[in-house]
């Protein structure tokens, strides 16, 4: 299939499908005919309950899984040399950091592997990356275990930004943080997007966060898109019963869990 991507789109996905095969369970379809697109500098949220296929879709777009069907096209700005168009930030930043390597050394190694050979240039770029996520030289000399969860997530974001991606995929990237640190990281992501016009694919089950960070939203149910559009429209006036159930499940002021009777 040949797909022409408009210049204002960072990403366009068409007809995405994924089927897993195993000897014991046979075929299991986790995605079917998923379409989505992200404008340059915008944030698209993908929401749905566990098992809806949202993380599988994100991993395919990031190149970590292979699609069974469909097309993924990334549109890179004219005249810009992009080292790697898509980067991904996961829920657990500690898993992507080497506990035996200081933060600065890890960034230096990443830049060296991807072509920035001269150490003075790497040193300057490392300082820029740490500054962009609210860290400094003190953190460069520290090891992951010495950092807080929020600081480790900032390092993970810096690592993802090091290769100048067009698209940053955030897979439940703030769900493991406490509320105050979560707010700090979300503000950081908003500032980065405003300054760089990077695009975000934000995978989350937290509709409050989704409302805060995204302009558009896709709702997945059992691997299929059941609603897509402006985030405010979908969350304020959901058309599908599944989306309404997701919205109704969000605790509100005064909400209390029902007591179970035995």
Characteristic terms for this protein:
262 residues, Rossmann fold, 34% helix, disordered N terminus, 9 helices, 25% strand, three-stranded antiparallel beta sheet, alpha/beta
TL;DR?
This protein has 262 residues and is α/β, with parallel strands linked by helices. It is built from nine helices and nine strands.
Fold blueprint:
Layout: E1 9-22, E2 26-39, E3 43-47, H1 54-62, E4 69-74, E5 86-89, H2 103-113, H3 119-132, H4 137-140, H5 149-161, E6 167-171, H6 179-196, E7 199-203, H7 207-213, E8 216-221, E9 224-230, H8 231-236, H9 241-248
Parallel strand pairs: 3-7, 3-8, 5-6, 6-7
Antiparallel strand pairs: 1-2, 1-4, 8-9
Helix content: 25-40%
Uncertain runs are: 1-6
Q: What would the CATH topology of the domain at 1-85 and 200-249 be?
A: Rossmann fold
Query: Any idea what the CATH architecture of the domain at 1-85 and 200-249 is?
Result: 3-Layer(aba) Sandwich
- H/E element string? EEEHEEHHHHEHEHEEHH
User: What is the first-to-last residue Cα distance?
Assistant: 58 Å
Would you tell me the structural class of the helices and strands? alpha/beta
- Report the portion of residues in β strands: 25-35%
Q: What is the approximate shape? A: globular
Summarize the biggest pleated sheet: 6 strands, mixed
The largest beta-sheet arranges its strands as 5-6-7-3-8-9
- Please tally the helical runs, counting DSSP H or I stretches of 4 or more residues: 9
Question: For this structure, what is the CATH homologous superfamily of the domain at 1-85 and 200-249?
Answer: P-loop containing nucleotide triphosphate hydrolases
Average pLDDT works out at 87
The CATH top-level class label of the domain at 1-85 and 200-249: Alpha Beta
Radius of gyration: 20 Å
Overall strand count: 9
């Amino acid at each position: 299939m040949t797909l022409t991507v408009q210049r204002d789109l960072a990403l366009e996905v068409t007809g995405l499908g994924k089927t897993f095969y195993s000897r014991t369970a046979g075929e299991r379809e986790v995605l079917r005919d998923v379409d989505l697109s992200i404008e340059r500098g915008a944030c698209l949220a993908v929401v749905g309950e566990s098992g809806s296929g949202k993380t599988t879709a994100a991993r395919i777009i990031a190149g970590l899984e292979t699609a069974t069907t469909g097309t993924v096209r990334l549109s890179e700005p004219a005249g810009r040399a992009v080292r790697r168009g898509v980067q991904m930030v996961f829920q657990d930043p500690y898993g992507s950091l080497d506990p035996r390597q200081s933060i600065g050394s890890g960034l230096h190694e990443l830049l060296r592997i991807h072509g920035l050979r001269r150490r003075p240039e790497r040193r300057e770029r490392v300082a820029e990356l740490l500054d962009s996520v609210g860290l400094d030289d003190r953190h460069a000399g520290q090891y992951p275990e010495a950092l807080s969860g929020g600081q480790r997530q900032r390092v993970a974001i810096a690592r993802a930004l090091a290769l100048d991606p067009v698209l940053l995929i955030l897979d439940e990237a703030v769900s493991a943080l406490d509320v105050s640190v979560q707010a700090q990281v979300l503000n950081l992501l908003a500032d980065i997007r405003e300054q760089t016009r990077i695009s975000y694919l934000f995978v989350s089950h937290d509709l409050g966060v989704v409302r805060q960070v995204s302009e558009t939203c896709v709702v997945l149910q059992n691997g299929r898109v059941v609603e897509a559009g402006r985030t405010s429209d979908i969350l304020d006036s959901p058309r599908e019963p599944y989306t309404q159930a997701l919205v109704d499940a969000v605790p509100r002021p005064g909400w209390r869990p029902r007591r179970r009777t035995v």
